[in-house]
Amino acid sequence: MNMQAIAVYLKKLSEQNPSASYYNVDVLKYQVSSNGIQSTPLNLATYWKCNASTTDVRVDYKYNPESMNVPSMLSDVQVVVPVDGGVTNMQSLPPAKWNADQMKAYWKISSISEKSENGGSGSLRAKFELSEGPSKPATLAVQFISEGSTLSGVDVEVVGTGYRLSLLKKRFATGRYMADC
């Protein structure tokens, strides 16, 4: 690392916010591509049943601690399912929100881990009543974050004198995390 550049950056931060007691510096950001379901922290399976007047959707999910260097909780989990066909009504378990403008159902789960109900496995279900069916099965999207672990196992240490690492945050977040039926 270029320690002189980090020192210049920290000086700039201190000038912008002189009352702060510390400053965070991101030193490493990277992307990880999936290598099959064994490498994904949340495995998904989707099922669609599309008729002229209704569409049934089920999303099964399973927490996968083996995908992480140190198993950690997935937080702020959001599952977004687009449904076309002129949705007039939605019934769901657990409750989801329907956004008519975007034609998408949204589920929010605060956290998923091994300590969650059923070891982090569950199902999201919805029945959509349609005015212009049938729907076409679509790709769903999932977002979440996790603190305290990485998917790659990468670690950081400071070698040498004169510098110390006061805090090391490990975190991963979803980018393109989707599931097809």
Automatic annotation (TrEMBL):
**Superkingdom in the source lineage:** Eukaryota
Does Membrane show up as a keyword for this record? yes
Name a single GO biological process.
clathrin-dependent endocytosis
Q: What is its main location?
A: membrane
InterPro entries, from UniProt? AP2_Mu_C_sf, MHD, Muniscin_C
The protein's matches in Pfam families, at most eight in alphabetical order, are given as: muHD (PF10291)
Annotated PANTHER family: F-BAR DOMAIN ONLY PROTEIN 2, PROLINE-SERINE-THREONINE PHOSPHATASE INTERACTING PROTEIN 1
Q: What is this protein called?
A: MHD domain-containing protein
**Natural source organism:** Strix occidentalis caurina
Phylogenetic classification of the source organism? Eukaryota, Metazoa, Chordata, Craniata, Vertebrata
